[in-house]
Every structure is written in C-alpha cells, then in structure tokens.
Design a protein that fits this description.
Layout (H helix, E strand, L loop, with lengths): L17 H11 L3 H8 L8 H5 L5 H5 L3 H16 L5 H9 L1 H6 L2 H24 L1
Helix pairs in contact: 5-8, 6-8
Length: 129
C-alpha cells in the first residue's frame, strides 16, 4: 500500500501520494470484521469511484473522520520526534546569520530541507486536530 519507501509524500496543498494514503487510512481505521469483509470482496478496486472523487487536499484532510485524523496526528507526532531538533530550533538557526554562515553549504541545504519538512508536518497537525 505504501510503496517501496514506506512513506507518504505531502505537499503544501495536498497529499501527493493520495491513493496510497487514502487506502492506508481506510484499512487501518477498519475494525477486524470490516477488514475481513473488505478483503473477501474480491479486490480492493471496488471503491475506485469513491476514491477518484475525493482528493486529499488540505481541505479534505481537515474533514476526515475522527479515527483517521487521530491516526494521522499520532503518525505526524512520531515523525516529528524522529528529528533531532524541533521547528523552532531550525527557525532560530535560519534567523541567526552568524551561526548559519558557519554551516557548510551542504549543512545549509539540509537545514532548509528539514525546516520545510517540519513546516509541512506542523501544517498537517493543525489540519487534523
């Protein structure tokens, strides 16, 4: 369901791997009985019309059912915990010209990437609260 990387790709305005995330949320939020029934329906493609009409834009994410929102929220928190620093620390470093200039070019680029990733994750937290 998730692909080789085992991760979902989020952008500023929508989920870029929306089919995978939609399916994962659907399955992970099912009860055991619902999952057995769904699995026995000879294929996972029966819901293609429903999935096509519901893109996972930021607006759609904020309207997810509570169990899906909780799952996403908890997943984002775990992802944020895997970073060595928080969003504020990255922002402080970006704003501290002297400290920033001491970083190598590669470290500066990594800082920008981490900062962008964390901002997207924090935006997602707000959407699913």
């Amino acid at each position: 369901m998730v692909g080789e990387e085992g991760a979902f790709v989020l952008g500023w305005d929508e989920v870029l791997t929306e089919e995978e995330l939609s399916m994962a949320l659907k399955v992970l939020c099912m009860s055991e009985e619902e999952f057995k029934e769904y699995k026995e329906q000879d294929g996972w493609e029966d819901d293609s019309e429903e999935e096509e009409s519901s893109t996972l834009s930021n607006e759609a994410l904020s309207r997810l059912k509570t169990p899906c929102k909780k799952l996403l929220y908890d997943s984002v928190l775990l992802t944020l915990e895997s970073y060595g620093t928080d969003l504020k620390a990255e922002q402080d470093l970006l704003n501290n010209k002297e400290a920033y200039e001491k970083l190598s070019r590669r470290e500066q680029q990594a800082l920008h990437v981490r900062y962008g990733q964390k901002r997207i994750l924090h935006q997602l937290l707000e959407l699913v609260q």
